Amino acid sequence: MHYKKTLLILVFISFLFNCKNEEKISSEVLIIPQPSEQTINKGSFILNDSTGIQYDDAFKISAEFLKTYIEEGGNLRFQENNTISFIKDDSLTNEGYILEVLPKNIKIKAKTDQGAFYAAQSLRQLLPPEFENGSFQDEEVIIPCTTIKDEPEFTYRGMHLDVGRHMFSVDFIKKYIDALAMLKMNTFHWHLTEDQGWRIEIKKYPKLQEIAAFRNETLVGHYSDQPHKFDGKTYGGFYTQEEVKDVVAYAKRRFVTVIPEIELPGHAQAAIAAYPELGCTGEQVEVVTKWGVYEEIYCPKEETFTFLENVLDEVLALFPSKYIHIGGDEAPKTRWKNCDHCQALIKKEGLKDEHELQSYFISRIEAYLNSKGRQIIGWDEILEGGLAPNATVMSWRGINGAIEAAKQHHNVIMTPTSHCYFDYYQSENEDEPIAIGGFLPLEKVYSFNPIPDELNEEESKYVLGAQGNIWTEYIKTSEHIEYMAFPRILAMSEVVWSKQENKNYADFVKRVENFHERLDALNINYANHLYEIEGDLLSDNNGLRYQLQTLTDRKTIRFTLDGSEPTVNSEAYTKPIPITESVSIKASVFNSDKKLGTTFSQDINLHKAVGKKITINKEPHKSYPGSGAEGLVNGISGSDSRYGDKEWLGFWGEDIEIIIDLGEETDITSVKTRFHNGQGQWIYAPKAIEFGFDAHGVDSKAKIPEVFDKMLPVIIKADVSSRYIYLKIPNYGIIPEGKQGAGNKAWTFIDEIIVN
């Protein structure tokens, strides 16, 4: 009788334990990037010292990765059995896999070793993060029974790293590649040459190592800061060919293809500093010490093509990739316009202008690389003057280049600044590390769909995928690289791997929060903005109200309205805050006993135009829509440095006309606004604006001084009573020669229009 009671109690305790255990492990099945199909089944698999692994040579890389990861990550040692088995399944795609975690065994099914490797990465994320740094000490691991059937949406899934402006160690490059592999990304775009430094050893041209690899000093602070200051220290270095071979082999074992970029015909001043005969003037120049676009450009003469072909021969011997990136962006034409040889070549070849000369240049390089069995990738400027026959376009200046190339049946890789430039700011916090400008928060990266709406189904097939770019003008250390890349690289991995219909940002945030522990274990210096607050001004029949929200679960927002710091005792946010006067809102996310993340601050200026009707004759550019026209009269000013935040409206090359309807006759003493003037990012304040009141339309003009300040305020003094305010804002026009983006249309970015 006692035996039966004891047995019943043990069964009951076991039942309770298993129920709690099931609940615990099911909540931990949080994989990035989101798999195509995932089912959580009843039961669990116990990984311990009795576990074995079985595979044949077809899965050697993936199986040995998994074996090493588990054995080095904890105290477990595999036995000789088939508890974990790798099974060939030719019905799957090359990068697809099926992962089945069953109570007695784990099955990894794949057509290729690469597909199996991605299965191993998913299984890796089902294990405790302590495996990442070898600190797991338990004798067993409980893994939930799960079935995952998965494959990528895009064939090209990449990340870029610029080592021309600042260089990073081979060990860090390998760590970067490891992160790509963990997230099932398959391409590392290595930007190796720049105006500011040549970073790859070319044995035939030793001056590239002796001269081109080093600059005399480096700009301190931001390019937009005046006057420019320098550190006075020589900076530089290069990767030896043995180091490059090591990196390429390392990446290959992780199914990451390394694509080198050798910039031409522009961004070549470092090379021309080493070999002045490659330029149009033949004059000695120096390796550039500050950022920007420079007029020195390869001269399209036979001597130059011989140099580039010899360089590429050594590059091809190091990089087995199908693609070689040849740049092609931001190539000023001033030198070519004033060069007798270039003008004679234009005439000889029957070319229309210098843009067609660039196409001639690119086509010659492409023909050479095609003869070696390789294909070129170039930035979207290679479309200008005619696209080389077999080129793949990397579209960065928005998506128009991609649309144009795809419609011409050329392959495309999407990397627009608006969603893919990880050197942009990711938070509105004023203590963020210095960045080039712009604003690209995690949610905006996640929202990116690489297939433009303008492409039909057939044209969409030419979009190979997308990549995130990290340019390093303002990034000197590997820790800073990690801060800019993570967690945005997590979002990009899901953009290029996961099905569009499976994406859900709130769910993604939960998985990112869970992933933080893994990043901690990997010693990755990620940015944590998950506990930040989003604010929006609401205007409806209930008047003006301010809404606060955060996407992390089971947290409380507490706020103040007097500018003081919120504490655990501050008022809890439960509904939108009525706005009846100008206020300074501060809010923070709290758990039960402490503040999480940084303090959110928002000043609301309840001026006379807030919430009034506003119309603009042009839609903001889809990459920088801000909060729409209404965002210009919502009482909230944009950031001083992040021109892409939701309070700035961006227009590319367009004249805009604005009408504000105050609803009734209103006394007006001034109208204020400001324009971003970040000329290094192609953003120019207008030279003047026109304005007027009431039925007169535009009848006056306010001139704007042409100065190199990042922000240019405009104040229109008035003493009128009017219902309407009219503003006409002409675009600056074409960016002049010698400036970054020369020859392109300028951007106009406008902030809050304040009416007093």
Shape assignment = globular
Quote the beta fraction: 25-35%
CATH superfamily of the largest domain: Glycosidases
CATH class of the largest domain: Alpha Beta
Q: What is the residue-mean pLDDT, rounded to a whole number?
A: 92
Q: Provide a count of the helices.
A: 18
Radius of gyration: 29 Å
Oligomer: single chain
Instruction: Enumerate the spans where pLDDT stays under 50 for 5 or more consecutive residues.
Output: 1-27
Rounded to the nearest angstrom, the distance between the terminal CA atoms is 88 Å
Summarize the structure.
With 756 residues, this protein is of the alpha/beta class. It is 26% helix and 27% strand. The strands form nine sheets. An eight-stranded parallel beta barrel has the order 7-8-15-16-17-18-19-20, surrounded by five helices. Strands 1-6-4-5-3-2 form a six-stranded mixed beta sheet.
Describe the structure.
By secondary structure, the chain is an alpha/beta fold. Helices cover 26% and strands 27% of the residues. It has four domains: 2-150, Chitobiase, domain 2 (2-Layer Sandwich); 156-481, TIM Barrel (Alpha-Beta Barrel), CATH 3.20.20; 534-603; 613-755, Galactose-binding domain-like (Jelly Rolls, Sandwich), CATH 2.60.120.260. An eight-stranded parallel barrel has the order 7-8-15-16-17-18-19-20, surrounded by five helices. The chain has a six-stranded mixed β-sheet with strand order 1-6-4-5-3-2. Strands 28, 30, 31, 32, 33 and 35 form a six-stranded antiparallel β-sheet that branches. A hairpin with a 2-residue loop joins strand 21 (534-540) and strand 22. Helix 4 (170-182) runs parallel beside helix 6 and helix 8 (302-318) crosses helix 11 (354-371). The protein is globular and about 90 Å long.
